[in-house]
Amino acid sequence: MMKMQMRPRAEAANRKQEGGRVAVVAGSGMLPRQVVDALLRQGEKPYIVAIEGEAKPSDYAELDIRPVPPARLALMLPELSRLGVDRLVLAGGVATRPPLRQLRFPPAFLLQLPRLIKAYAQGDDGLLRAVIGFIESRGIKVVGAHEIAPDLLAPAGPLGRVRPNRNDLRDIKAAAEAARAIGSLDIGQAAIAVGGRAVALEGIEGTDGLLERMKALRDHGRLAGARGGVLAKCAKPQQDARADLPAIGPQTIVDAAQAGLSGIAVDAERAMVLDMAETIKRADELGLFVLGMRESDN
C-alpha cells in the first residue's frame, strides 16, 4: 500500500483547494454514489463517467454525466482534460474486461500499448496500476475513493455489538493468511476459514460468488455439520490503494449469514465498509461480528 503524506481526512478537507474539476468513473455497487455524496459535501460538482452495463445513470441524474462503454473509456481522457478535470476517482465494480481487440485508445496511447497488453494478461491489480499510470501521464491525478470519503475506512476493532470468540479468532487468522497469500499472487482479496483452516478462496467470481459457493460447501461431506466460519477480506500486499480496495456492505452481511458464517474480518484502514451504519445494524440483527483487523494481530 502506498504511504500517503497526510491523513485522509486532512486530504479531504484540502481537496477543494486544488482548483480543477474532479471526475468519477462509476462502476457498479454503492461506492460510486457514496464518493459522489462526499464530493458534494466538500463543495465539488463532479463529472460522472458512467460505465455502461455497470453504473445506473439514474443514480446521478442531478449531475453532468456521460455513459461510456467499457471499451471506449480511454477515449474520454482528452474530453475530460478539455472540461478542466485534473483529478479522477475510480469507484465501483466492473464485472468483465472487454476483449483487448475491442479497446479503443487516443493516438497518444499507442506508445504505451505494449505495457497495456502485458498488464491485460495479469490480475486486476496489475491492470489497474497500468491504467492509473496512463491516466496520470495525461496530466490527471488519480485519487483514491478512501481519500475522498475517509469515513468509509474500517476502524480497528469490533464494529458492532457482537464480538468474535476464541474459535472465531482462530478462523480469522487462517482466513486472513489465505487471503493475503492469494493477494500476493494478484488472484483475489478474500478467503473463508472454518474450524481453523481455509476452505474457500476468492477467484474471478468475486466475494459474492465466494459466499454463494460457501453455501453449497455446507453440504460437502467434510464440512457437513461444521458450524461458524469467518470471511476475511485483505488488501493485496502490492496493491495501489487508489483502486479496488476491499469493501463490504449490507448485502455482504446478509450473504455471509446465509452461508452460515459467524462474522467478517477486514483490514483496518485498508478496507471500506459501505453504508457503515446499515452494515453494522444488519450484522447486529443477524448475530454476526464485523472486525477491523491489523496485520500485526494475525
Automatic annotation (TrEMBL):
InterPro entries: LpxI, LpxI_C, LpxI_C_sf, LpxI_N. Residues 155-290 form the LpxI C-terminal domain. This is Phosphatidate cytidyltransferase. The lineage of its organism: Bacteria, Pseudomonadati, Pseudomonadota, Alphaproteobacteria, Hyphomicrobiales. Residues 21-152 form the LpxI N-terminal domain.
